[in-house]
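Task 17 of the worksheet. Students: predict the tertiary structure of the chain below and write it out as structure tokens. Keep your answer in the requested format; marks are given for formatting as well as content.
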Amino acid sequence: MSKPRSLAPPPRTRAYRLVTARGDFAVLDTAPEGEARGTVLLLPGYTGSKEDFLALLGPLSDAGYRAVAVDGRGQHESHGPRHRAAYSRRALALDAVSQALALGDGPVHLLGHSFGGLVARAAAWLAPEAFRSLTLLSSGPGRVARPQRVRVRVLRGALALLSKERVWRATRWLDSRGEEPGATDPPEIVSFLRRRWMRTRIVQLSSAGRLLRRDRDGTAQLAQLTVPLHIAYGDEEMVWPTASLAEAARRTGAHHTVVAGAGHSPNVSHPQELADRLTAFWERCP
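Model answer:
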């Protein structure tokens, strides 16, 4: 997941429920500064939410883009059913298509971070006419690296046996190990992370984790997409091997961005540089 460093929304941001043909979704919608140059739909990753993009919304808005970050079904403030079939990759991809259409701006730029990238590439395959481009941010064309598969398996197993509160406490303890003395998250961030965790459906966490562990390599399908493709990640990325991401970019002919000094969430750690790289790519799109 991404961990926002601040919960303050940028200027011109509205929080509301986007009404679509497939239900309502909680969004953060930041209007562009000056004349609009386009609209981007931002899909968050595993255990994440729309707030993962708070630091990125402002720079995109300043560059003239309407930026809309969304909670997927069952994530944080978006409602979701309790049955697993509702969280198939196809179901989530159709949600993204309906969100793009509901924004009312015509085809939009689509960006998926981490697990959101799995959803985004499925959406672009199902309805390429809904999107001007596809960016996979810190998201590979196949399953995550082995250490991450182990972590996801342990988390899914814990959720099957323990309450969400107990799992939260355990993961917070593990995350805090190895930190410098006194190094803690601000209370408002901890409160937000706990609230997001408790509101996210267990079935969403379980189903998304299963996809992350078992996803087949989709490089060949990415190469057949008709929308412009961008693969971006930090040079310290750990969830997917950087070598596999670079190879996917080479094989698909994708626009390729590596953010120096960034880990799994350049949207949090390097928002201005990432926004500059994104907008440069979008300006090249038809």
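Marker's comment: Confidence is low (pLDDT under 50) at residues 176-182. The beta strands are 13-20, 23-30, 38-43, 65-70, 108-113, 131-137, 229-234, 255-259.
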